[in-house]
Specification:
Elements: H1 14-20, H2 23-38, E1 43-46, H3 48-55, E2 62-66, H4 70-81, E3 84-88, E4 93-99, E5 111-118, E6 120-123, E7 132-135, H5 139-144, E8 154-156, H6 168-172, E9 175-176, H7 181-186, E10 189-190, H8 197-200, H9 203-215, E11 218-219, H10 221-230, H11 239-250, H12 255-264, H13 267-271, H14 279-285, H15 293-301, H16 306-316, H17 320-341, H18 347-354, H19 359-368, H20 370-384, H21 392-397, H22 404-419, H23 425-439, H24 450-459
Parallel strand pairs: 2-5, 10-11
Antiparallel strand pairs: 1-2, 1-8, 3-4, 4-5, 6-7, 8-9
Length: 470
């Protein structure tokens, strides 16, 4: 059976790159090449952009490397195109963003983005920490610091004009591929560049799972062995970085496929021993599209017990709003059993406790337990659409005091209406009259006297003037 990734590869060349870019990206590329050549600085397209070009994937954000000063290059580009520029001199990087029409980027506007970096080497002083960067090196040494061979390719852009006709041989020579990344793409093979890759940075395990699921890659034998050993280095990664990787998994087109690989490779258990994809979660993840990280976390954490959910969330650095979504989903799952075994009449009180659960929590619970959640969430929607037949103002007019008793009566009226025992405003007034009459003389109801009860008795069959209620 052919997979979605079995189409022929495109050999990376400048002509192939120009064809793959949209008009705005092409303008950026032309301008970047002109500025680089005016400064006599070679410019390369590097990393994931070259990989995606070979795979025929859309090119979104573009990554460039230069042995010149990226800050000067990007500043000149920003002035020419009115683009937003962000410089990071300490790391030798510069970021440029602009809208498709060339104007400065506004919040949430369609954008074109590009990163420019000086050639560098990196050294990890201990596992899990960000590397120490040393600027100034050869392109080959810069490529050697990357994670996988399929990301360790570069395409030389400067030289003769992009529009010049060139021989196939000269264009092929522009691809710098010292680790045979293109051959690995052809073989659908995932391969690390060195044996300490996952020791240096165990987040590469998460990236390996994303690339393997997205492109249909399989680790070669040596990389598979390093993955099996590498999970033990997850402990060296901070919670903040783990959450960032988790969010990137959720953004994948098939996050469930990524999670299955992380489970198979022991990465999830390395995060926390109780983080395991059980039957419910596996079913919920089966056809899950790209989603919010809140939903993905709820699908994994809601079936866990409360203590495990808390511990997993802490290790992953989960934001509080995400934790609440998982807790809400867990309450919805627990409510199914409570609803099916509870005494008659308990349903409204149970539903009242669930009505503030978020839409994402309900989606997660529905995916985890479709059979149980469908009737529960139908009842919950009906409860949320049910209102007390008498308003607070009408109860106050009839002598019900402000405070807990007023709130209690409003809830009781809503509850009885949901259960179908109140069919009219007259029924509701009679219910309140009887409730007041039953409490007259009790310490908690001394403010509600017999005169108030008489008002309800008189009004039991009369709609209060101006109430507008049936």
């Amino acid at each position: 059976m052919r997979s979605r990734n079995d189409h022929p590869l495109i050999y990376p060349s400048r002509q192939a790159l120009v064809r793959a870019l949209d008009v705005a990206q092409r303008r950026l590329l032309d301008a970047a090449v002109r500025v680089a050549e005016a400064s006599d600085c070679p410019l390369w397209l590097v990393g994931g952009a070259v990989r995606d070009l070979a795979l025929g994937q859309p090119l979104r954000d573009l990554d460039f490397a230069t042995d010149g000063d990226p800050a000067s290059l990007v500043t000149a580009l920003g002035r020419a195109h009115g683009a937003a520029v962000r410089l990071e001199p300490r790391f030798g990087t510069a970021h440029l963003t602009f809208e498709a029409d060339g104007s400065p980027t506004a919040e949430a506007a369609p954008r074109i983005a590009a990163d420019f970096a000086a050639l560098r080497t990196e050294r990890y002083v201990r596992p899990g920490v960000l590397p120490t960067v040393r600027l100034g090196t050869t392109l080959e040494d810069d490529i050697a610091r990357r994670d996988f061979t399929v990301n360790a390719m570069a395409l030389l852009l400067t030289g003769s004009a992009l529009t010049d006709a060139a021989s196939d041989e000269s264009e092929r020579s522009r691809l710098v591929d010292p680790f045979d990344g293109f051959a690995d793409l052809q073989a659908r093979r995932l391969r690390v560049l060195h044996a300490l890759s996952f020791v240096d940075d165990a987040t590469r395990l998460w990236r390996a799972a994303r690339f393997a699921a997205r492109f249909g890659l399989r680790p070669d034998r040596a990389t598979a062995a390093l993955i099996e050993d590498g999970a033990r280095w997850i402990h060296s990664i901070s919670a903040r970085r783990l959450w960032n990787e988790f969010a990137l998994v959720a953004a994948e087109a098939r996050p469930g496929a990524v999670v299955r690989l992380l489970q198979r490779w022991g990465v999830l258990r390395a995060v926390h021993p109780t983080l395991d994809v059980g039957t419910e979660s596996a079913r919920a993840l089966a056809r899950l599209p790209s989603c919010a990280p809140e939903l993905l976390f709820a699908l994994l954490a809601a079936p866990l017990d409360a203590g495990s959910r808390r511990d997993v969330g802490a290790r992953l650095g989960v934001p509080s709003v995400v934790t609440r979504t998982a807790e809400d989903a867990a309450r919805l799952l627990a409510a199914v059993a409570e609803l099916s075994t509870g005494a008659e009449g308990v349903a409204p009180d149970l539903l009242a406790a669930l009505e503030n659960t978020s839409a994402l929590a309900r989606t997660a619970a529905l995916r985890l337990d479709p059979a149980g959640q469908r009737p529960l969430q139908r009842a919950l929607r009906r409860w949320e659409g049910t209102r007390s037949p008498l308003s607070a103002e009408e109860l106050l007019e009839q002598g019900v005091p402000r405070g807990p008793r007023l709130s209690e009566l409003l809830h009781q009226l809503r509850r009885e209406r949901y259960l179908g025992t109140l069919r009219s405003a007259a029924d509701a007034r009679r219910y309140v009259y009887e409730a007041i009459a039953a409490t007259v003389g009790k310490p908690s109801a001394r403010r509600v006297n017999s005169r108030s009860a008489t008002r309800f008795a008189v009004g039991a069959s009369v709609t209060p003037k101006g109430s507008g209620r049936p």
